[in-house]
Amino acid sequence: MDPSTTHPLLGVTGTTAQVAISAPSTAVPGDDQPTVILIFGWLGAKMATLRKYGDAYTRLYPSSTQVIVQADPLRYWKFGRGRERAVLPAVHKLEQMNLLSAPPQGPPPRILIHAMSNGGVMSLFDTAAVLRRKNIHPPTGTKCAIIFDSAPAPPTLPLTIRAFTASTRGRLRKLLATGILTVVYFLIFVVRTILRRPRPLAQEIAALNDPALLPWTSAKTPRMYFYSTGDVIVPSTAVEEHAAKARMAGFPVEMINFGKSAHVSHARDNPEKYWEAVRTFWSGAMRR
C-alpha cells in the first residue's frame, strides 16, 4: 500500500489522527472478499507500520477498499466531539461508498473491521458515535465481522503506565514518565468525576458488547480475539473476560492465543498463523 502500487492512497489529516484510504484496482470485490476493510490502529502506531497490515490485507483481498485510521497518543486523554473529529474522514469515505444508506450498485456490502489495542477500540467507538447521529439504514444483506487484536483491557493506572512507557528507554526517563502519567491520570480522573464523565475506555469497552454498536452489527456479528499470555500491556485474562461476556451476549466468538508474542506483535511474530486465521475467520463469517 505505498504510492507505487496500484492502490493509490489518500491521506487525510484529522485533529488527532491520519486516515489513509486505498482504492482497489478492480471495481467490484468478489463474493469472498470484503467490500471495505476498516483498520483502527493502536495509540501511537505510525502509519507506515499500519500500512504493512494493509499490504497483507491487499495480498489476501486485492479488490477490497481499505480505510486505515491512525490514533495519536493524545486521543487517550480526550473525550467528546474533539475525539470524534479525527474519524470523520473515514465516515465520509463510507458515505461515498454508499455503505451507510444508499442502495449499493451490486451485492450487499461486506465489512471487515480490525481494531488494534485499546487505541483501536477508541477509534471504533468514535466512529460508531458519529454514525449513531446519522439516519443510517444499511442495505439489506449487509454483513460484518470484527477482529479485536490485543484488546480490550480495563483502563487501570498500571496498564496505562505500561502502555505509554513501553517504548521509553532508560530507567530515569521511565520513572519521570511514570510520575507525569500518574499526575495527569489523577487530574483527569478528578475532572471527569466532577463532570460526571466515564473513565477513559470504560464506556468504549462496555459498548463493544452492544449488538447495535454499528449500523451493520447485531448479536449474530462474528468476532475474533487475537491475544497472548506474553502481552504485559493488555493481559490475556482481560481479553478472555471480555470474550466470555460477548459469548453471554450471544455473539459468535473465536479466540487465538499467540503464546509469548508481545502486545500487537502477533502478526510480526507469527505471520503465517495470524493471516491464515484472518482468512479462515472471514471465510466462516461470510457463510453465516
TrEMBL record:
Tell me the membrane topology, using the record's own terms.
Single-pass membrane protein
Q: Tell me the domain of life.
A: Eukaryota
Tell where it localizes: Nucleus outer membrane
Tell me the keywords, alphabetical order: Membrane, Nucleus, Transmembrane, Transmembrane helix
Keyword presence, Transmembrane helix: yes
Q: One Pfam family name from the record? A: DUF829
Q: Which residue ranges traverse the bilayer? A: 175-195
**GO annotations of cellular component type:** nuclear outer membrane
Q: Which PANTHER family match?
A: TRANSMEMBRANE PROTEIN 53
Question: What protein family is recorded?
Answer: Belongs to the TMEM53 family.
Q: Under which name does UniProt file this protein?
A: DUF829-domain-containing protein
Q: Which organism is it from?
A: Dichomitus squalens
